[in-house]
Write a structure and sequence with these properties.
Layout lengths: L2 H10 L4 E7 L3 H14 L6 E7 L4 E8 L1 H7 L8 H4 L11 H15 L5 E3 L2 H20 L16 E4 L3 E4 L5 H9 L12 H20 L1 H11 L6 H8 E4 L16 E5 L13 E8 L2 E2 L11 H14 E3 L5 E3 L1 H12 L2 H11 L19 E4 L2 E2 L2 E2 L7
Parallel strand pairs: 1-4
Antiparallel strand pairs: 1-3, 2-3, 5-6, 7-13, 8-9, 9-10, 11-12, 14-15
Helix pairs in contact: 5-6, 6-8, 7-8, 8-9, 11-12, 11-13
C-alpha cells in the first residue's frame, strides 16, 4: 500500500483513538509501550490496532475495541452501563479503586467512540484521561445554592468587577479558590451561580489539577489570567474546549464519556422562555450519571433528566407582573408520578430520548443534543491551549 492510498484508508476509518506524529522507525517502540499500557488496564485482549503510513515520513496508529468486546460492553455505542459491563476487575491499590475504575471507563469509551480522537502521543492521551477523570470527580463533589439573591463567590478568594467578572484576589491559589466556590466541604457554605458557569469551574479545575502535577508553567499562566479577567461563556468555549458531533453527524443518544460537558434542550417552546429553563448544562460523571449541582446527592440518569425537562412545560405559569416563571414544586410532583408509572414513563421517554430540533424549531425533536464538549490538550509536550492576552 503506497502512502497516498494508506492515508485515504486512514481517513476512511471511523472512531477509536489515533496516535499520530510517530516517526516510522519508532513505530515498534510505540506498539510495545501501548501493549504494556493495555496490560496494566487489563485490556490487552479487548483492543485491536492498525499502523498505517501517514504523511511526512510519519505513521499513525489506530486503536479501537475488538467487535466482540464492543458488542458486549458498548452495544450501539451505549456507554451508560459501561461501568457495570466492564465488571469488577480492580486496581492493585484498593484505596485507588474508584479512580482506577473511572479512568478505565474513560479509556474504554474513547476506544469505542464513533468519533475519532487524535492524540500526538501516549503521554498526551494519558493527560487527556487524567483531565477527564479530574472533571468527573469534581462534578460529583460540586453543589450550588439555589436561587439566592445574587451571584456570589467566597470573599476570601474572589472579588467582582463589572467588566472582568469574578477574578482571583492576588496570591489566592486558583485550584483552592475553585474548590472553595464549588465544593461546600471547603467552606461550609453553598454559593449561588448558574449551572453553566459551574460547568466552566469544573472544567477549569480539572485542567488546573492536571497542570499542577504535569505542566506547572501552564498553571502559572492560568493563575495570572484569572487574577485579571474571567474567561466565560463563548470565549471559554473557544479557548478551552473542543466540540465533537454535529447536526449532520449526531453522536448516538446514549454515548457519553466521563468528563463530557453537554446540553439537554427543553423542546417545549413556551417553558423554554423562562430564564434558566431553555435547557440544562451538565457534566457526565460516569457510571450512567449526570451532574445535579442543586441536589448532588441525587444525580440524574438520562431517563430522570429527560423526564424532569419534559415536565417543565407543566410547571410554567405567568406571574402578577406578566412574566413567565417556573413552579418547581409542580415539576417535582409530576416527575415522581411519572417515574412511578411504567406506562407514563415509557411514553415520556419515547418523546424525549430523541435528537433535538435545530435552533428555533419546536416540532418533534427531543432533549438530546447532537454534540458533546471536552478540553483541549494540556499535555506539556503538546499543549493546544492559547490563552488570551488581557
Amino acid at each position: 500500500m503506497n502512502c497516498s492510498t494508506a492515508w485515504l484508508a486512514l481517513q476512511s476509518l471511523e472512531g477509536g483513538i489515533q496516535l499520530s506524529a510517530c516517526p516510522a522507525n519508532q513505530a515498534d517502540r510505540l506498539a510495545l509501550d501501548l501493549s504494556a499500557w493495555l496490560k496494566d488496564w487489563g485490556l490487552q485482549s479487548a483492543v485491536q490496532t492498525l499502523t498505517l503510513p501517514a504523511k511526512d515520513g510519519l505513521v499513525a496508529m489506530i486503536c479501537s475495541l475488538r467487535p466482540e468486546f464492543q458488542q458486549a460492553c458498548m452495544p450501539g455505542h451505549d456507554t451508560l452501563a459501561l461501568h457495570e459491563r466492564l465488571g469488577h476487575l480492580g486496581s492493585s491499590d484498593p484505596a485507588n479503586q474508584e479512580v482506577w475504575a473511572l479512568e478505565r471507563e474513560i479509556w474504554v469509551a474513547l476506544l469505542g467512540s464513533p468519533h475519532r480522537f487524535e492524540f500526538a502521543s501516549l503521554a498526551s492521551l494519558a493527560s487527556h484521561i487524567r483531565v477527564r477523570r479530574n472533571m468527573a470527580l469534581a462534578a460529583r463533589k460540586t453543589a450550588l445554592a439555589f436561587k439566592t439573591e445574587a451571584a456570589e463567590r467566597p470573599a476570601a478568594d474572589w472579588h467582582y468587577e463589572e467588566e472582568a467578572g469574578f477574578i482571583l484576589k492576588p496570591g489566592r491559589p486558583l485550584i483552592q479558590a475553585l474548590i472553595a466556590a464549588t465544593q461546600p466541604e471547603a467552606t461550609g457554605k453553598l454559593y449561588d451561580f448558574s449551572c453553566y458557569r459551574a460547568t466552566e469551574y469544573v472544567i477549569l479545575l480539572g485542567i488546573a489539577q492536571e497542570a499542577e502535577v504535569h505542566h506547572p508553567g501552564l498553571l502559572a499562566e492560568l493563575q495570572k489570567l484569572n487574577e485579571r479577567h474571567a474567561i466565560r461563556s463563548g470565549q471559554f468555549h473557544d479557548v478551552f474546549l473542543v466540540e465533537y458531533g454535529s447536526m449532520e453527524h449526531p453522536l448516538p443518544a446514549r454515548f457519553y464519556i466521563p468528563g463530557d460537558r453537554l446540553w439537554f434542550r427543553n423542546p417545549d417552546e413556551r417553558s423554554s422562555d423562562v430564564t434558566g429553563f431553555e435547557g440544562s448544562w451538565v457534566m457526565y460523571m460516569g457510571g450512567g450519571l449526570f451532574s445535579n449541582f442543586w441536589k448532588r446527592e441525587t444525580p440524574f440518569t438520562l431517563e430522570s433528566k429527560a423526564i424532569e425537562i419534559f415536565h417543565w412545560r407543566h410547571g410554567v405559569y405567568t406571574d402578577a407582573q406578566g412574566e413567565l416563571q417556573m413552579d418547581e414544586a409542580v415539576v417535582d410532583r409530576l416527575v415522581a408520578q411519572t417515574m412511578a408509572n411504567p406506562q407514563a414513563k415509557a411514553q415520556v421517554l419515547e418523546k424525549m430520548i430523541r435528537m433535538r430540533d435545530p435552533q428555533g424549531v419546536y416540532a418533534q425533536g427531543g432533549c438530546i443534543d447532537t454534540t458533546r464538549e471536552y478540553p483541549k490538550s494540556v499535555s506539556r509536550d503538546h499543549c493546544e491551549l492559547v490563552l488570551p492576552r488581557v
